[in-house]
Amino acid sequence: MAGLFKRNGIFYAKWYIAGQPRKVSLKTGSIQIAKAKLRQIEGQLDQGEENPLPTKTPLAQAVKTYLDHIRVAKSPNSVLKDANILRVIFGPIIPELEQIGRKQNPRVWKRKKHPTDGRRKCPRIQAAILEEITTAQVAEFISSSARLKGLAPRTANRYREVLSRLFSWSMTQAGVKMPNDKNPAQAVERYRQKAPEIRFLTLAQIDEQLDALADQPELHTTVAMYIYAGLRREELLWLQVEDVDLAAGTNGMIRIRAKTVHDQAWQPKTRDNRAVPISTALRSWLDKYAPKPSIGGWYFPSPDGHRWDVDNFSKALHVANARAKLSWTCLDYRHTFGSHLASKGESLYKVSALMGNSPEICRLHYASLIPATLIDSVEFESTDKCTTQTA
């Protein structure tokens, strides 16, 4: 049982745990407010909680502990993305955040500084203690970022998601006790996202794209594989020679699987290994291609004989396409694969299995591509029967 006492005009709560006294300031001189807080403490003590009041965890410590956790639980790419967002939200409050959050690769193409970048900087969430952060602060940070930087709703929701995971993990795994046991980020209203705009190449555009890269065999073959196998950008660049089995099945098989190369581990985005059959069209291009020797045995090595950095590859593709006045990207190629399969009547379940997505994601992207074979499915009965009944 807890009790109240007053000292210097401020009420305190006092209770005992295993014979040891505990006391805490209720930060009020009002007896009514003090009694209400005392009832809350007693209720939590009755539920077996030894510490019914919020903890005080330094923000830098909370973020560092969370980063230590995701380094083990997530892929390096996911850690990089979350760390970048946490740095945007809080700033480089710990050395670990700065080290993880920035790529240490001098060869990576960097975006040119926009003339209005200085004016578009948004205030960060300022707090010394994690438990001091409120829903209002999170909501204000996200809304001001959306307003000043023009964030897309999806990015704004991503900020909310990363913060919510930080609070949730800290509360359930790190002993943090937030006020009223509430995750402040979860109460922030999600932004309404627009329906995805899917770009994909027609058959004529596929020919145009491949013809434009005919003088660059390596780049030409990578684009053909993106289009005809629907791989993600990073999935293709992590392929090794043994992952492309030209003897399996009818035309061969591409195996996307987790691996560790030179102490660097990689996982598919969904953490599920999968295999994609090689189509007849793709096999015709692969038969003309021979991977160059490289450190790591990569199927598509970079010009210097290493694994391509994803941003450097995109830059090289952009430069090559710009000469032909084309603007297609690796994501467009992946959507081309899914869109053409859906258009010819393949089930979204099959499409999702081949692309390594959930059926729900494929539904959002490709359900509108109704093939002609489904036109009869919307008819309830024959026209002749309807005419007879009307007569």
Mean pLDDT: 85
What is the first-to-last residue Cα distance? Answer: 84 Å
* Shape, principal axes of CA atoms: elongated
Radius of gyration: 28 Å
Which regions contain 5 or more consecutive residues with pLDDT less than 50?
104-109, 114-119
Strand content: 5-15%
Number of helices: 15
Helix content: 40-55%
Describe the structure using short key phrases.
8 strands, mainly alpha, three-stranded antiparallel beta sheet, elongated, 391 residues
Describe the structure.
The protein has 391 residues and is mainly alpha-helical. 45% of the residues lie in helices and 9% in strands. The chain contains 15 helices and 8 strands. The chain has helices spanning 31-46, 59-73, 76-90, 95-101, 135-149, 153-173, 203-212, 217-229, 233-237, 280-286, 310-323, 330-343, 348-355, 359-366, 383-390, and strands spanning 3-7, 10-17, 20-25, 244-245, 253-256, 259-261, 264-266, 274-277. The strands form 3 sheets. It has a 3-stranded antiparallel beta sheet, with helices on one face. A hairpin with a 2-residue loop joins strand 6 and strand 7. The chain is elongated. The N and C termini lie far apart (84 Å). The model is unreliable at 104-109 and 114-119 (pLDDT under 50).
